[in-house]
Write a structure and sequence with these properties.
rod-shaped, Protodermal_1, 62% helix, 155 residues, single chain, signal
Length: 155
């Protein structure tokens, strides 16, 4: 009888311990943190402002001293200053008009195409789209908006 009582007590103790662990794990699964701080990594790492800040080394394919006309071709030479560099283009503040906005966003998109794996445009696509967008203000505004969306979404 004593032996049965001892076995029963041990079983009850084990059951009690198992119940405590289960209750703790259920509580842990259903609680939410009181304060959660999350920081989106990469937010802003693809914008013209980021590239103009020089916080990251530029891709070797396009040094900061590269001119817009050398990178984007003769159509860009006709539209922008012949000595406008990509660094200057990313730092522009006159993006209320379509063509300045296009060169600013396109410069960032080109840098992202070289530096960011998974960026939706390849370098040749950025260059081609810029040349095509230079035909009109409407086309420039539309393409600048598309580049801006891609630059903002990238990480």
């Amino acid at each position: 009888m004593e032996r049965t009582l001892a076995v029963t007590q041990v079983l009850l103790l084990l059951l009690l311990i198992a119940g405590c662990f289960e209750a703790g794990s259920v509580a842990a699964r259903h609680t939410r943190p009181g304060f959660l701080y999350s920081r989106t990594t990469g937010a802003g790492r693809c914008t013209p402002q980021f590239w103009s800040s020089r916080r990251e080394a530029w891709p070797r394919m396009v040094p900061q001293t590269s001119t817009v006309s050398n990178v984007f071709g003769s159509r860009a030479y006709e539209r922008y200053r012949y000595d406008l560099t990509l660094l200057e283009a990313t730092a522009r503040n006159d993006d209320e008009e379509a063509f300045p906005r296009l060169v600013k966003q396109a410069s960032a998109a080109l840098l992202n195409s070289y530096a960011r794996r998974g960026f939706p445009y390849r370098a040749w696509q950025v260059k081609t789209l810029v040349i095509q967008a230079l035909v009109s203000e409407k086309a420039a505004a539309l393409q600048a908006q598309r580049f801006s969306i891609a630059n903002q979404a990238c990480n």
